[in-house]
C-alpha cells in the first residue's frame, strides 16, 4: 500500500478516536461534590407573591436558609411546563418529610400578568402540591428582573428554556440543571448538598 494511503488510514483512525473521546466526555456525570458544580449568578432579592397571596423577598425570605429546587412554568402552557410540573410532583414524593423543613420546591410563573395568586393556587391544587412546594408570581417587572438574574428570561414565553436550579440558601450556592432533569438526578443533587451541609 502506498505510504500516503497508510497515512490517510492512520489519520482517519486518529480522528475517529478523538471524536469518540469527545462524545464520551459529553456523557460524564456532574461532579459528586455539589459545590464543584456551582454557578455564579446575581439574582435580585425582590418581593414576589405566592399562591396564597403572601409576599416575601425571593432570596432572603422565601428561599431563606433552606435547600431549594426552583423551576419555571405558566399555567396556560401545554408543552414543556407540564413536564416540569410532573417532575416536581414526583420529586416532592421522594423528598418525603424533609419537604417544607430542610428542603423546599419553588415554581416561578413566567407569565405573572395572567398567573395571579388565585390562578396559581388552583394550579397547585390540581398538581396535589404539598406544603413546602411554593408557586410564585408578582409584579411583572420584578418577576422579569428575577428571571434575568437567573439567566432564564425569554421575551417569548412560548420558547422559555427548561431548567431546574438547586439553591443552598444558607451558603448562597446555586447550581443549574438544564433541560428536564429526572427526579432521580434532582434528588441526587439535593442529597449532595445535604451531605455538604452535614444534614444527610
UniProtKB/TrEMBL annotation:
Pfam families: SCO1-SenC (PF02630). Transmembrane segments: none annotated. Residues 37-195 form the Thioredoxin domain. It comes from the Bacteria. Gene3D superfamilies: Glutaredoxin. PROSITE patterns: THIOREDOXIN_2. Keywords: Copper, Signal. InterPro entries: SCO1/SenC, Thioredoxin-like_sf, Thioredoxin_domain. Coiled coil: none annotated. Residues 1-34 form the signal peptide. Belongs to the SCO1/2 family. This is SCO family protein. It comes from Desulfuromonas versatilis.
Amino acid at each position: 500500500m502506498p505510504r500516503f494511503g497508510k497515512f490517510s488510514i492512520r489519520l482517519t483512525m486518529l480522528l475517529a478516536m478523538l471524536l469518540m473521546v469527545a462524545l464520551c466526555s459529553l456523557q460524564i456525570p456532574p461532579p459528586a461534590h455539589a459545590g464543584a458544580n456551582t454557578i455564579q449568578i446575581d439574582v435580585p432579592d425582590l418581593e414576589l407573591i405566592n399562591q396564597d397571596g403572601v409576599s416575601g423577598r425571593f432570596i432572603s425570605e422565601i428561599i431563606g436558609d433552606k435547600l431549594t429546587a426552583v423551576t419555571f412554568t405558566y399555567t396556560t402552557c401545554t408543552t414543556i411546563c407540564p413536564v416540569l410540573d410532573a417532575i416536581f410532583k414526583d420529586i416532592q414524593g421522594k423528598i418525603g418529610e424533609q419537604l417544607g423543613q430542610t428542603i423546599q420546591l419553588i415554581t416561578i410563573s413566567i407569565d405573572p400578568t395572567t398567573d395571579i395568586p388565585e390562578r396559581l393556587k388552583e394550579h397547585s391544587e390540581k398538581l396535589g402540591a404539598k406544603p413546602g412546594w411554593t408557586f410564585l408570581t408578582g409584579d411583572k417587572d420584578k418577576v422579569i428582573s428575577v428571571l434575568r438574574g437567573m439567566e432564564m428570561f425569554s421575551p417569548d414565553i412560548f420558547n422559555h428554556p427548561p431548567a431546574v436550579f438547586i439553591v443552598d440558601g444558607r451558603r448562597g450556592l446555586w447550581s443549574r440543571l438544564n433541560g428536564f432533569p429526572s427526579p432521580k438526578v434532582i434528588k441526587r443533587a439535593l442529597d449532595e448538598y445535604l451531605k455538604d451541609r452535614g444534614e444527610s
